[in-house]
Amino acid sequence: MSSFGFGTLTVALFALVCCSGSDEKTFEVHMRLEKLITSLNKILLLEQTQWKHYLISNISHDTVLWCHFTCSGKQKSMSSNVSVYQPPRQVFLTLQPTWVAVGKSFTIECRVPAVEPLDSLTLSLLRGSETLHSQTFGKAAPALQEATATFSSMAHREDGHHNFSCLAVLDLMSRGGEVFCTHSAPKMLEIYEPVPDSQMVIIVTVVSVLLFLFVTSVLLCFIFSQHWRQRRMGTYGVRAAWRRLPQAFRP
């Protein structure tokens, strides 16, 4: 018998086979974990002569739950495999850099914190509806850790017209559970055209020539202004000396 749960776990234990046809009123049941690490919390929900229905809680990891019971005066036991899961509640997407030139590389990173079991998790990096990369995780990965998927690609012109996102899928169908899907918030890349090398040379040359002409014009203006000032000051000097001469020396 197997069970699956998150947070609290409902386990139905039946002893109909052992007690078939029995009308005894006493049906004793004792439950325990395979490895007694934490105390087991159980609440009796329903019961009849031949079965009891419990709500089990405080199970934080995969384990085997053992049920020991007395049926028709004989002690019996049965086990139930218990699997614990943590669905992907948050999915974070990062684009680095967010502004990239055509032909240059960029990186997509997807992070999902606190999810288990990791071997049932798949992270898919999407461009629009197109899957760029999918990543699964092995059983050796520790539980309740941050799952990460990374993918690098070259930027294309059409990348600026699509949303990038991450899809986290926790598929528990093979374990008797369901499928949980969570999307990240979409993000977009800013794509620009790189400047060709020849065009850059032309731009640098034109800027250099304009800068040279500007500096030259400033220097010429300064030289001409100084020359004009000297000529003007020279004329005023001759007139002043003429006025200072005595009348007798003037022609």
TrEMBL record:
Intercellular adhesion molecule N-terminal domain: from which residue to which, for each copy?
Answer: 35-90
Principal localization reads membrane
Enumerate the transmembrane spans: 200-224
Subcellular localization: Membrane
Q: Which SUPFAM superfamilies match?
A: Immunoglobulin
Report the GO terms under cellular component.
plasma membrane
Task: Tell me which positions the record assigns to the signal sequence.
Answer: 1-21
Superkingdom in the source lineage: Eukaryota
Query: What InterPro entries does the annotation carry?
Result: ICAM, ICAM_N, ICAM_VCAM, ICAM_VCAM_N, Ig-like_dom_sf, Ig-like_fold
GO molecular function terms listed in the Swiss-Prot or TrEMBL record: integrin binding
Arranged from A to Z, the UniProt key words for this protein are: Cell adhesion, Disulfide bond, Glycoprotein, Immunoglobulin domain, Membrane, Repeat, Signal, Transmembrane, Transmembrane helix
Per UniProt, what is the membrane topology? Single-pass type I membrane protein
**One annotated GO biological process:** cell-cell adhesion
| Family to which the UniProt record says this protein belongs | Belongs to the immunoglobulin superfamily. ICAM family.
Listed name of the protein: Intercellular adhesion molecule 2
Origin organism is Papio anubis (Olive baboon)
Tell me the name of the encoding gene. Answer: ICAM2
